[in-house]
């Protein structure tokens, strides 16, 4: 089974904002249209052992847009800062050790705990030296952000397998057509 949602951006909050796929392009697509989709995202990328069934995706989308503004705008509006701080103040999951020695994460409200984790991750990222390495993907229609962990800091695409491969194919076709 393949994963429904993209991951691998380098930080959980960066994977989260990718749920508005192709942001800012005519192909923009909402990946969290309802509670079931938000629950599926948590199930795929969150730490909880059991499926999560949130009541709504509205708060998740509101947090996603606040995180995106935090990471992309030079000045964060006070309302956005308050929203981020409110989500970050929610209870986070607690670790527990099972009788077989496995680590499990528990929360009375896993969806809210996931929102807290995402907000805290975004606040941590924007105040860390890593933030200087957050890059927009150079893919023409991608719109994603990623953390460039390459040694020289010159990575251009969120994914070499997808965006990088498409760019290289386009360059190859353009050269072949010009010949």
TrEMBL record:
It holds the Pfam family zf-CGNR. This is Zinc finger CGNR domain-containing protein. It comes from the Bacteria. It comes from Amycolatopsis balhimycina DSM 5908. Residues 133-175 form the Zinc finger CGNR domain.
